[in-house]
What does this fold into?
Amino acid sequence: MKTGETAVISGFTDERLSVKLLEMGFLPGTAVRFNFTAPFGDPVCVSVSGYDLSLRLDEASTIVILN
Amino acid sequence: MSGSTKLKIALAGKPNSGKSSLFNQLTGLNQKIGNFPGITVDKRTGSCQLNDHTQAEIIDLPGIYSLYPRTLDEKIVAEILADKKGLFYPDFVVLVADATNLKNCMLLLTQLIDLRLPTVLALNMVDLAAQSGQSIDIQELSSSLDLPVVMINARTGQGIDELKEILSGSIKPSKNRIFKISEEIKPLVLTIKNKFSLTTDYEAYQFLQQTDNLVFLNQEDRDYIFAQAKAEKFFPHKYQGAETVMRYGFIQDLLNRVILKTSDPEWKKFSYRIDRVLTHKIWGYLIFFSVLFLIFQSIFAWAQIPMDFIDTSFARLSNSLTELFPEGPLFELITQGIVPGIGGILIFIPQIAILFACISVLEESGYMARVVFLMDKIMRKFGLSGKSVVPLISGMACAIPAIMATRTIENWKDRLITIFVTPFMSCSARLPVFTILVALIIPDNKLFGFFNYQGLVLMSLYLLGFFAAIISAFALKFIIKTRERSYLIMEMPTYRKPKWANVGYTIIEKTKSFVFEAGKVILAISVVLWVLASYGPADQMSRAEQTVLEQSSNLRLTEHELQSRVAAYKLEHSYAGIIGKALEPAIRPLGYDWKIGIALVTSFAAREVFVSTVATIYSLGSTDDEQTIKGRLKSEINPDTGGPRYTPAVGLSLLVFYTLAMQCMSTLAVVKRETKGWKWPLIQLAYMTTVAYLAAFIIFQSLS
It folds into this structure.
């Protein structure tokens, strides 16, 4: 994904982490927008369920998206 | 319920929902900071007069997204809300929700409803929600949830009276049941529910999900639950995800009905524009370091005026009391032990207040989250997490709250490393030591007519501590092994103006806890020290005058010089002198004498005791009480060289030693509590003392 793009969440690859991500509003079927990255490309800032969150790249990469 | 009949009201909600603002609005200055029994999570409680005849105790719970905890801090919430017989089990819960972002606030609310807790939904930040163009059907929201809903603005106090009115009436738990426990585990849940005579299925379900987190369950109960869960093949994680999805399904349904107009996505544009600068790869770091530099300059420059005032006031008080009181050991204890001791505590207040004002503004404005965002990648290289930045920065005020703040770091390894290196960060207790020594050996000149030399040296010391922390963390990254995974999923709040009242409360809270907690130790130690420095083996002390007279009979001294020699002799032969002298061979390579040796030993209790020790030692060594500590140090002569005792080499060696050494038993005690054992604090003590000794040795030997 590039900054500024929006995609739809379809699932997760990490079950343990998915519990936390779900609680924070990363729900399958919801749109997620990739806002911008920190200076070294990691972590990233995304918008989901109406607010902004920061995630590390390896956390963000457990979220499966549909483009 | 416990002995008191006061209403208990708990404030719950996600972080950044304005919970603390509401807490401050409700309780004002009637706040108490303590610990929940058995664990070390901060407990903020306060009393609130709801109406003429109802008083309530308000409990501010740690900010959480859901009952399932991600950190040690969050564990306490599930524990309090699931323990009906517990001391803190609330009569009512106020769920504080961010109206601009309802969806994520509702997850916890649906869990509270399923626990059948009488809950009020307080919609906070209604002004921002209106600004964003959002409009909510409150009536529909309230009737769908079957609980009272109040719109508040915790920053201005709007809606607080209405909230109080609702809380002083009777609130019934909502009749909604949102989470439907799946059929396959229903029998298991019922078994648990009957066994512990619980009123709701969801409570029983929580017993199953969080057996280990609910500390009110005894081992026998836990074993029973584990055995039952195992027999029925119950795996907590599998069901947690399904529960969350089901709850969000309900929430989305509800929000579709009550949100009449969604917020305009444009309203956050301004925040994004600020982010583009503040998280920029050059500007972001430049601004961050400028902010840090500004904080140090302000501590050094602004705090100086009130500090000087406190300094001279107490010197004057001590003097006038000495003249007022008759002679006698008890009066001496007051004028020379207790009064200077209290002065030595109060003198920190300006620095603590300024520093916490700065930290609190950073947090209130939302900038702190950007600091974490900027620093995470770099900090991870050194075995720390972006979340370590906040404890490390707080460590510049005091390692004790900073180490307690590491609880927000979920990962045990990240946490342990942060705890281990935080005491390297120069805390406010080092500042008085720094301030006196820097002012003593560094000229008060300006570089390029702008940068104060003393300020620059002070900043270098902070950087030295910072680098010691970073390098140690890097080494520990390879030493400590763990299987647990670290993660950073953190909200980036919208930028907003800090609320000054909240900044004020933070200052009061921090100052109070310093004066009444650290202050006790400081006062006790300075009194003990005064006794140690005033008394010694009886025969030597009583012969002091005679011995000095004999030694100096042919020197033709004035009465004043003679008195001062007697005093010096007495100190040298006091208990403190004996300990200091025993230490001298070990610290001579660092440039220290036995007087500094005494200060090193006593300041192990807390670094700032160095100052009061030095004050006590030198005030006893001289009869001129008008001089302040700085003046006394300046006039101290090294008998070996005939020059001043505090040369730049000795001063720098001491500065470096105090930057790097542990020298704080309160920190050790907190580390012991947080790591649940003496292993880590002892390793930390040995490590830091060794590093400090070696560094001070190199500095002194290369400069002298």
Remarks:
- Chain B touches chain A at residues 65-66, 68, 70, 100-104, 107, 237, 240-241, 244-245, 248, 263, 268, 272, 275-276, 279-281, 284-285, 369, 372-374, 376-378, 386, 485, 487-494 (CB under 8 Å).
